[in-house]
Amino acid sequence: xxxxxxxxxxxxxxxxxxxxxxxxxxxSKLNISxxxxxxxxxxxxxIPISTLYEIASILSTDFTVLLTGESPRMNTHTxxxxxxxxxxxxxxxxxxxxxxxxxxxxxxxxxxVTLEVxxxxxxxxxxxxxxxxxxxxxxxxxxxxxxSFTLNEGDxxxxxxxxxxGQAAVGGTTKFLTVIKE
Length: 182
What we know:
Blueprint: H1 3-18, H2 23-29, H3 34-42, H4 49-58, H5 63-68, E1 86-91, E2 94-98, E3 109-115, E4 130-144, E5 147-152, E6 156-159, E7 165-181
Antiparallel strand pairs: 1-2, 2-3, 3-7, 4-5, 4-6, 4-7
Helix pairs in contact: 2-3
């Protein structure tokens, strides 16, 4: 995990300790074992985006605080210029850029996701709310539950993310806009 990404687990631990929430309580609220939680908080295991949202909710903080260490500042509008969103390279071949990180109290999380073809598709994830994906470049395989859909540039999907789901690049690098509403 790169040093920028290592700051996220450090922020989580610091906020949890400030709020005096035991690690076992966090693990319980996330429905994972204490051992799994400790691996997330120590940076030994990558934290899925959906889990970051859950952690932010448990800690009563904004997703942006976990990503950047700073609170959002805008409450009427925010403009993010091309390439200036908050970027996270979660693992090789998966990069996302938060496009509304500076808006206070946002009810949606728009992100630009860039995927490269992987030998092994990432594990499926689940989270609350609703999710929308719009393919901007390339071809993406989107799995929702037991069904998979191949989406090309200009195609989109809106789905219930409480079902196991995931995205994988097909044939080359792909970019898509994802909007998550918790």
